[in-house]
Amino acid sequence: MAKEIQTIIFDLGGVLVDWDPAYVFLKRFQGDREKTNWFLNHVCTSAWNIEQDAGRSIEKANRIKIEQFPEYESDIRAFYKEWPHMFAGVIEGTLQIFEAIKASKKYNYYALTNWSAETWPTALELFPFFNTFEGVVVSGQEKTRKPYKKIYDILLNRYTIDAKTAVFIDDNLDNVQAAKEMGMQGIHFKNPVQLDMELKKLGISY
């Protein structure tokens, strides 16, 4: 029989806050969706961005891309200069669930996020509730990232979490699968209503 859940672990971007580089580049490209998609699929790609989440410096990241696409230098530099404008705000339904979990005082609650160490201080200013977790593991600070096993080990060991009594919530399926391989329950986040249902299926009440 599955153990009772004691710990709830949240991803941040895409679960608690709405982040999308397209919010910036649609403005830069005068609403041209096709050009925005091309730029984010070929120049400042997810694969490029996630290396900053894993600890690569923004300066080095910019240098690599500007060498490849010199004609887009100003747009490449804009990715991190205008980074705070990539947020549409909090995902209210998930924030309500998080606040209810905290208020219930029944569970431990942590965050495990792929996030650049250089932009993390700005994130704490933008979203002060990030400071209210019992602990947060930030990939850029650890020089590793989801879905690699090492970052889950860091979380579990640092906060003495029993994986078998923990549930991990993420909008990236690979990250959820990795958590399951570590022995945790996993929820692939789609929206707050679905999250509420999945948590209740696991016997979590708040």
Mind sketching the topology for me?
Layout lengths: L6 E4 L6 E3 L2 H7 L4 H10 L3 H8 L4 H11 L4 H9 L5 E4 L1 H13 L3 E6 L6 H7 L8 E4 H4 L6 H10 L7 E5 L2 H9 L3 E4 L3 H10 L5
Parallel strand pairs: 1-4, 1-6, 4-5, 6-7
Antiparallel strand pairs: 2-3
Helix pairs in contact: 4-5, 6-11
Short description:
With 206 residues, this protein is an alpha/beta fold. The chain has eleven helices and seven strands.
Task: Explain the overall architecture.
With 206 residues, this protein is an alpha/beta fold. It has two domains: 121 residues, HAD superfamily/HAD-like (Rossmann fold); 69 residues. The protein has eleven helices and seven strands. The strands form two sheets. Strands 5-4-1-6-7 form a five-stranded parallel β-sheet, sandwiched between helices. A two-stranded antiparallel sheet has the order 2-3. Strand 4, helix 7 and strand 5 form a beta-alpha-beta unit. The longest helix is centred in the middle third of the chain and has 13 residues.
